[in-house]
Every structure is written in structure tokens, then in C-alpha cells.
Amino acid sequence: MMLRFLMMGALLCLPLAVLANPDAEPDHSKIPEWQVIRSLMFGDREINPDDRDVVRVYLNTRADDASTVPIMINGLIDQTEDDYIKTLYLIVDRNPQPTAGVFRFTPESGRLKLETRLRFEQYSFVRAVAELNDGRLYMSQRWVKASGGCSAPMGKNAIPASMLGKMRFRVDDQVQYDQPLLVQVQVRHPNESALASDLAPDQVPQFIRSVQVDYNDKPVMTGEVNFSLSDNPVFRFYFVPKAEGALNVRMEDTHDTVFSQSLPVAAKPPASNP
Amino acid sequence: MNRNRNGISEMGPMLGFLSILLVSLASLHCAGSFAAAQAGSLVVEEISPGNYVHYGVHDDRSPENLGDNANIGFIVGDRCVMVIDTGGSLPVGRALLEAVRGVTDKPVCYVVLSHVHPDHIFGAAAFLEGSTEAQAGINIDVIGHENLPRQLAARGTFYQKALERDLGELAAGSDIVMPTTTVAAGQVLTVDLGNREVEIRGWAPAHTDHDLSVFDRATATLWLADLLFVDHTPVLDSNITGFLDVMKLLRATEVNHYVPGHGRSDKPWPVVMDPQQAYFELILVETRQAIRDNVRLMDAVNQVAVSEAVNWVNFETYHRRNVTTAYTELEWEQ
């Protein structure tokens, strides 16, 4: 059985408003948000376009899931005592907290590589600004389109308190001394957005604010981060083990909770042939 | 015989279907009279006695479709009416209320919000402020999962901004409505619409972490909301293993009629679930393999289950996101 009703004809007949095409990539240097961020963070220092192949940002430029946009930042120079990327600024122009992270590296990082996952509130440029040890700045940027549908930057699931801060490591099986070793660290954490309207006014949003990675007590990477990173944050990076030791990861959140875990690292003798 | 307010009587299924086609075509060509259109209502089909469904369109939300993208509808009892999901904007909610009025003079007493997604919730305001029920002091109970208030609070503002971006002024008044009654995972709330008992079931994390389904006992009609997608790419916004578990339970349910969250109710139950199940099973297997092979998320979204593209509409919009949800869940497995 079916019934017939009138359709919403009036609204269907409305002419389409002439809208600026939101898919078009704007000039990255003219974004108002960026001009403010640039001036606050770098003053009138020169930021070189990335023509020396210093740093490069990789990501899928359609943010299929606004809560979890994987990004990879590669340093394209060897990290040496004389010439290395000291600081990496990761910026999402139009996020409520645009500076997603400020990461510091050392010559012992071998080759700078950082992979993590970002939230995107709207169409935005994402930028990696690399500061060399001599203070020169290089920038690589990509335009990221927000996804359609019901995707949202907030976390999808609540994280039970019993799991908070639980970490997981992933390392290449083949550890070789004096060679860059790829490590992934992931942590169970809601990384609550300060903008989430479900927070009471006096409630401090709980997000990770610092990450510190050492190997045998020497710094590998440190980061000041915030809720522009996805929930259950993930970091992938290289370091160069020179001998057997322990990789220590320490994170601290805005509720002053400290999470730390250690991963033993040792080169395995090559498997003997049977 | 039921009569709607325009005096159009019930028709045989064939004639009814034809007339719906004609109305739809007429609307596409903007042939309807403006005055008639302003009194606008939605096309609804009575899929089982007292269960009225409006099928949303698969297109992206736009000023033309006003966010009329999800299947929505209502159940009529002897005492009052339960509305199940409200459409993607206030105008769609209002048109649904008009459709209710076209079928019955009984008041709306329950509004079920199946989950937080904008195509299901943004018409809710139509049933509250200014409605005849509100003016008559009739209490409308808004029912949601116990995790819905948290999700509405977290995502509401973001979804409203996106609605304004897509619909402009037509988004006005599409307010967030909070549930007045909540149902926990594993809990069943039974309400009586007057000689008509309806069960509202809260689920463990699946499509979202706060899914509700509705079951009309009298006709064994199951309203699945987004626990079932037909033709439209299934959407995963919480838990892939949980979704597959829920589908297993749903399959075992004795159902005479069903309403998916998207797509039509034409195929037999439960084989109508097969394509969605095959899709999620393939994502599960291939995502686990990608994680074992150390394929990073960025690349996995372009590799996992892409062979499924031919089976679904809106695949480009939703598939990579589904893989993202699955990957970020499964990377924590032992």
C-alpha cells in the first residue's frame, strides 16, 4: 500500500545560489589565518619555498575521515652535525589550534621522518616548516579538502579509563646498528578537543601535550603537541641505534598524567641457514 | 480505508508506485504549483500496516535535496505516532510531520533518533517547538542511545556548520535536539503507541557507538537505521568487528518487513544483508593483512577492498573512511 503526497516542490525549484567553488585551491601565501600564524610564530624571518629539497609533506589531499588524516613529513637532507633539521613545525591553518606540533630532532635521528594523524576542522592548508640548525626556514605545504558525508573530527569511540595511556610499539625485525630504524609508537588516548562542546566550562580538556623519545638517555625526538592530532595518537619516526639499549617514550597530557614505556632494542645475529 | 488530508484514497500497490514516480518526475521538472508545494510533504510508503517509510536519496546533500538523504518514517498506533529519524534539515523534518498529518490526526508522542549523523537528526526541531503537539502541551519523548548525548554535544556544532555550508539559509532552525529518554547498549525499551507495542533496542558499538533499532511487534517490521545499507556504500563510524557481530544477531531475527537506513526495502530478508556483510568481511580480512604487512594507513585506504567499488554508490565518499575506521580499530588487536 502506498500513499501519494506532494513533494517539496518549492524548495526543489529554488535556483542554486552561486557559490564560490570550495574545491579550488587558493594561493597558500594569501590565507588570512596563515598570515597571522606566520607573523606570530616566525615574525619577519624569511621562509624559503622548498626549492632546496629540505622537507616534503605527503598525504591524501582529500580528508576522507576528518578525525584521522594520515600525514608523512620527510626530511630530504641527511641529519649531520653540520647541517640538520632542528625543529619541525606542523601547522593546519584553519584548525582551532593550528600548530598541531613542534618537533625537535637531532643529528642522531639519521634521516628526519615523521608520520602521524591529524584532525581537520575544514578545508585547509597543512604546512611543514623545517628550521635548520643555522636558523634557515623551509616550508612544504599541501591543500587538503574536507570530506563529505557524516565525517567529523571528533573521536568515534569513548576510551575506557583502564586503557588510557596504553602504548604499543612496532619496530622493524631487522635491527642494524648505525642504520636508521623505523619505529611506530601508538597510545590509547582520547586527545580531547578543547572545542568539544560537551566539556563543562571548568573542565580542562584532556589531550597529550608533550612527547619525548630517548635512546639510552640521549634525545631522539621531542614534540609539543595538542588536539589537532587524532585520538589514539600514532607517531612513526627513525632513529639510529649505535648499540644495544632501550628506547624510552614518555608522554604527558593536560591532566598532568604521565605515560611512559620502554622498548628494548638489540641487533639480532643473522639467521643461520639450516 | 485511510484517507490523507488531500482526500486521496489508498491505491493498489502498482498504481501507487506509478503515482510516486510521476510526482517525483514532476518535482524534478519543477512543475508543481508553488502554492501546493509550500504545503509540502514527503512521499511515504506504507510498507506494512501502520509503518510509513520515506526513502531518502543517495546524492550528496545539496540545496535541492535539503539533506533528504536517509530513510525516515513513522509508526501509527491507536493513541499516537512514533517518528523514526527526522531527516537532514528542518524543512525535511517539517515535510515528514506534514506526511504524518496526511495519514492521521493522532499526535506524535515519540521521536527516535537512531544515531548522531546529520541526515537523521537535523529535522528533529520540527516536532518540538511550534508543533501542534507542543502547543497542545503534549509531551514528546525524544529517544536516543545513552551515548547519543555525548556524541551530539561533541559533534553538534561541527555538523551545524557543515549544514550551513551546504544548505545556506535553508539550514536555518535545524537545531540539535537532545534525547529525553536514553537506552543503553543491550537494553530494550518497550513503548505502547495504543494497541501497538514497539521495541527500541540499544546496540553495542557497530555503525556508531550509539545505534538504536526499532521493532514494531504487530507487523514484525524492523527499522534498522544505518545498521543496514542497501546500494548506498555502508558506513563504518565505530567498530567493524562489532558491526559484524550485530549483523549476525540481526540475521537471526524473525522479520516480516524491514527498513534500511539507506536504500530500498525490496529484497527478501535476510539475504538483503549479504552485500553489506561481504563488504565488511573483505575490509576486515584485507585491513588485518595490511597491518601485518606494515602497510601504512595512508596507503591501506587505497588498497583495501577496492574491488568492492562496483557494488556500491557513493563509494568514493565513504570507502576510504571505512578503511580508516577499521584500521585504527584493528591496529590495536593482539
Please, could you describe this protein's structure?
The complex is a heterodimer of chains A (274) and B (334). In chain A, strand 15 and strand 16 form a beta hairpin. Chain A has 274 residues and is mainly β. In chain A, the strands form two sheets. In chain A, strands 1, 3, 5, 6, 8, 9, 12, 13, 15 and 16 form a ten-stranded mixed sheet that branches. In chain A, strands 2-4-7-14-11-10 form a six-stranded antiparallel sheet, with no helix packed on it. A seven-stranded mixed sheet of chain B has the order 1-2-3-4-5-6-7, with no helix packed on it. The chains are: A mainly beta (274), B alpha/beta (334). Chains A and B meet through helix 1 and strand 4 of A and helix 1, helix 2, helix 3, helix 6 and helix 10 of B.
Low-confidence stretches of chain B: 1-39
CATH superfamily of chain A: Immunoglobulins
Looking at this structure, what is the CATH superfamily of the largest domain in chain B? Metallo-beta-lactamase domain
CATH class of chain A: Mainly Beta
Name the overall outline of chain B: globular
Q: Structural class, from helix and strand content of chain A? A: mainly beta
Q: Number of folding domains of chain B? A: 2
What does the main sheet of chain B amount to?
7 strands, mixed
- Label the overall shape of chain A: globular
Q: Biggest interface: chains and residue counts?
A: A-B, 55 and 87 residues
Largest pleated sheet of chain A: 10 strands, mixed
Instruction: Please give the alpha-carbon distance between the first and last residues of chain A.
Output: 74 Å
Query: So how many helices of chain B?
Result: 10
Q: Assembly state here?
A: heterodimer
Integer average pLDDT of chain B? 89
SSE pattern of chain A, N- to C-terminal: HHEEEEEEEEEEEEEEEE
Strand content of chain A: 35-45%
Instruction: Please work out how many helical segments of chain A DSSP would assign.
Output: 2
